[in-house]
UniProtKB/TrEMBL annotation:
Family the UniProt entry places it in: Belongs to the metallo-dependent hydrolases superfamily. Adenosine and AMP deaminases family. Adenine deaminase type 2 subfamily.
Keyword Hydrolase annotated: yes
Gene: AAH1
GO biological process: adenine catabolic process; hypoxanthine salvage; nucleotide metabolic process; purine ribonucleoside monophosphate biosynthetic process
HAMAP family reported for this sequence: Adenine_deaminase
A molecular function GO annotation: adenine deaminase activity
Chief subcellular location: cytoplasm
Organism domain of life: Eukaryota
Protein's recorded name: Adenine deaminase
Organism expressing this protein natively: Hyaloscypha hepaticicola
Lineage of origin: Eukaryota, Fungi, Dikarya, Ascomycota, Pezizomycotina
UniProt KW keywords: Cytoplasm, Hydrolase, Metal-binding, Nucleotide metabolism, Nucleus, Zinc
Site positions (Important for catalytic activity): H235
Cofactor(s) required, per the database record: Zn(2+)
């Protein structure tokens, strides 16, 4: 448990998670178990000693030097996921943990290209994730959405093939997949590479987000907004370098999905205190707080909330603003948003937060 005196209060605060890579919730112990079960070879421990045991892998995760250093382990890790049942248990475990942290709604990324290119079909992945979503809603009342991410180090053509697969299966129109995103190595892979697939999605009324301004400079954010017409920005911490852009994001109520512990582990900042939380609050930027890849970055959603509290000492009124902004920026139905806003009101009454 964190040291923050607000721990219980932050636990009880109705939370929405918008930036969670489901493959990034694969713990080293599950990784080793699934590798054995599915007979997937892991790197030889004599070449990379991190793969000696779950503990040595966990230790290696505390020493990432960059986004690419992390992605190397992330892609090896997910290679143990083979069957629909693997994806279902991975996602159900994540939902169970998010529920225990007091999350009521989660919008989770998945990376289909990273699976299809090693022979696991798009349908296998989505069947497993959808089954977990239904179980989590039934068991915990936790609602969720899927966001199909394109890997920016792969071609636009390949992204389009996967987009068209999802379109032809009716996954965007029947609600199986809520929208598209863009992830993986940022620098050198600007958003405009994917302008056409984003234009198709916009024309079809499909929701759009993209990682931008994580390691890349603020022009990645403006290009994601202007060229790909995204409705959200994932990470977006480099907004602080461009005052005009920051004011625009505040004015347009674009949701910025921050991931504090991730940014520290990947050395985008040296400590949580360096993140623009205070600046975003002062300027009225709408943002949510998220875990990104919790099994790799040392914390789930509540750990991230507590880390922000320890660094910035926010008031309950400010936490209420964050919670309401996260709900308003969610991609769930309006009816669900209203229910979630009522829960924030109840939280405010319980903790005597004046409006
Ligand atoms: N933090 C991150 N940035 C870019 N791509 C990712 N894929 C998983 N986590 C990511
Ligand atoms: Zn991410």
């Amino acid at each position: 448990m964190c040291k923050s005196p607000l721990h219980q209060c932050l636990h009880d605060l109705p939370k929405c998670e918008h930036h969670l890579h489901i493959e990034g919730s694969l713990s080293p112990s599950l990784l080793f178990r699934l590798a054995a079960l599915n007979s997937v070879p892991l790197p030889d421990a004599s070449i990379d000693p991190s793969f000696t045991s779950p503990q040595t892998l966990e230790d290696r995760y505390t020493r990432f030097t960059s986004l690419n250093d992390f992605l190397h382990y992330y892609f090896i890790g997910m290679s143990v996921l083979i069957t629909s049942a693997d994806f279902e248990s991975l996602a159900y475990e994540y939902f169970t943990r998010a529920h225990a942290d007091g999350a009521l709604h989660a919008e989770i990324f998945f990376d289909p290209q990273a699976h299809t290119h090693r022979g696991v079909s798009y349908t296998t992945v989505v069947q497993g994730l959808s089954a977990a979503q239904k179980r989590a809603e039934k068991d915990f009342g936790l609602t969720s959405e899927l966001i199909l991410c394109f890997l920016r180090h792969m071609s636009e053509t390949d992204a389009d093939v996967h987009y068209q697969d999802a379109v032809s299966l009716g996954h965007f129109s029947d609600g199986t997949v809520a929208g598209i995103g863009l992830d993986s190595s940022e620098v050198g892979f600007p958003p405009e590479i994917f302008r056409e697939v984003y234009a198709s999605a916009k024309a079809a009324g499909i929701r759009r987000t993209a990682h931008a301004g994580e390691e890349g400079d603020s022009s990645y954010i403006s290009r994601a907004l202007d060229i790909c017409q995204v409705e959200r920005i994932d990470h977006g911490i480099r907004l602080v370098d461009n005052e005009v852009l920051l004011k625009r994001v505040a004015r347009e109520k674009t949701l910025v999905t921050m991931c504090p512990l991730s940014n520290v582990r990947l050395r985008c900042v040296s400590k949580v205190e360096e993140l623009p939380v205070r600046k975003f609050l002062d300027e009225g930027v709408r943002f949510s707080i998220n875990s990104d890849d919790p099994a790799y970055f040392g914390g789930y959603i509540l750990d991230n909330y507590c880390a922000v509290q320890e660094a910035f000492g926010l008031s309950l009124k400010e936490w209420r603003y964050i919670a309401e902004g996260a709900i308003e920026g969610s991609w769930c139905e309006e009816g669900r948003k209203k229910e979630l806003l009522v829960k924030v009101q109840e939280w405010a009454e319980k903790y005597k937060v004046v409006a």
